[in-house]
Amino acid sequence: QVQLQESGPGLVKPSQTLSLTCTVSGGSITAHFYAWTWIRQPPGKELEWIGYISSGGGIYYSPSLESRTSISRDTSKNQFTLQLSSVSPEDTAVYYCARGMRPGRRTSVNRGEYDYWGQGTQVTVSS
């Protein structure tokens, strides 16, 4: 059974960098093809696709967030990370990590393409 767990600060000040880590257990992040993905849901809005790092190390970002986003991984710890720079209150959301089953950049989130999700972590951007 694959499990994903997000961790990181729940409060970030405006203009700072948001950093989250997803720890994966029950399966290697380098095995087979999977898209180890970050998704967020702002209050009252739809799920938003942020980007992913594939099992092979390829990285894809949402065009709307690409200039501020960095996704990386630590294979020795079976973790992948999200950094979002220059945050504003509009970045307040519940952030999820998930395992995607299909490659390619996305403009929306189809839950059926993700077989495992973390529980989500609330990140609030406020001074």
Describe this structure in words.
0% of the residues lie in helices and 48% in strands. It has no helices and 11 strands. It has strands spanning 3-7, 11-12, 18-25, 35-41, 48-54, 59-61, 69-74, 79-84, 93-100, 114-117, 121-125. Strands 2, 4, 5, 6, 9, 10 and 11 form a 7-stranded mixed β-sheet that branches. Strand 7 (69-74) and strand 8 (79-84) form a beta hairpin. The N and C termini lie far apart (39 Å). The model has no long low-confidence stretch (mean pLDDT 96).
Order of helices and strands: EEEEEEEEEEE
Separation, N- and C-terminal Cα atoms: 39 Å
Shape: globular
Counting DSSP H or I runs of 4 or more residues, the number of helices is 0
Contiguous uncertain segments of 5+ residues:
none
Described by strand count, sense and barrel closure, the largest sheet is: 7 strands, mixed
Quaternary class: single chain
Structural class determined from secondary elements: mainly beta
- Percent helix among the residues? under 10%
Strand content: over 45%
Task: Give the strand tally.
Answer: 11
Rg, Å, rounded? 13 Å
Mean pLDDT, to the nearest integer, reads 96
Describe the secondary structure blueprint for this structure.
Elements lengths: L2 E5 L3 E2 L5 E8 L9 E7 L6 E7 L4 E3 L7 E6 L4 E6 L8 E8 L13 E4 L3 E5 L2
Parallel strand pairs: 2-11
Antiparallel strand pairs: 1-3, 3-8, 4-5, 4-9, 5-6, 7-8, 9-10, 9-11
Features:
seven-stranded mixed beta sheet; four-stranded antiparallel beta sheet; 127 residues; mainly beta; globular
